[in-house]
Specification:
Layout (H helix, E strand, L loop, with lengths): L4 E5 H19 L4 E7 L2 H16 L3 E8 L11 E2 L10 E9 L3 H10 L6 E10 L10 E6 L7 E4 L5 E4 L1
Parallel strand pairs: 2-3, 2-5, 5-6, 6-7
Antiparallel strand pairs: 1-9, 3-4, 8-9
Helix pairs in contact: 1-2
Length: 166
């Protein structure tokens, strides 16, 4: 049985979420409307938290949407957005996932978003694994952690909140 090594507890996740929201606001304050797209699953749940905090601290209009992408086989399945895609033309978009492990899911989500003429595209993540296989850069990061290819970072959001190394 693999052991869990906790890297973030509930309180730390709340602190990181608040800090990331403030960073997003500071970097987009001149933009009247921003779009926050969360990757299905924990990425979307984390995006919901960021949007809630942004609505508390900012006067910007913040539009949340979900990006449905298969984490197991993103190249073999279609990627869908929960908003009319034409809304993204000229928009400032923050792409959100809970953790960047290999970077594969984010690469495919970025490709879908770049099918449109977005004005600015930034990436936010709670945990950023610094050892990954795909060239993804996170602009807003809760925690950077050095890992090996064998390591896996998991995030649990809900009743028992934590990020852990498995």
């Amino acid at each position: 049985m693999k052991t869990k090594s906790i890297v973030l507890d509930r309180r730390q996740i709340e602190q990181k979420t608040e800090r990331i929201a403030f960073e997003i606001m500071e970097n987009t304050f001149e933009t009247p409307k921003i779009y926050v797209g969360g990757i299905t699953g924990n990425g979307f749940f984390f995006a919901e938290r960021l949007v809630k905090k942004l609505n508390e601290i900012s006067k910007q209009e913040v539009r949340l949407f979900e990006i449905t992408v298969s984490k197991e086989a993103p190249a073999k399945s279609s990627i869908a957005l929960s908003i009319p895609e034409q809304e993204l033309n000229g928009a400032t978009v923050i792409l959100v996932d809970d953790v960047i492990n290999s970077g594969r899911t984010l690469i495919y989500a970025v490709g879908k978003l770049l099918d449109h003429e977005v004005h600015v595209l930034k990436v936010a993540t709670l945990v950023n694994r610094t050892h990954r296989r795909y060239p993804v850069h996170a602009d807003f990061v809760g925690l950077n952690i050095a890992t090996t290819l064998k390591d896996n970072i998991m995030v649990s959001l809900g009743e028992e909140e934590m990020a852990y190394l498995e």
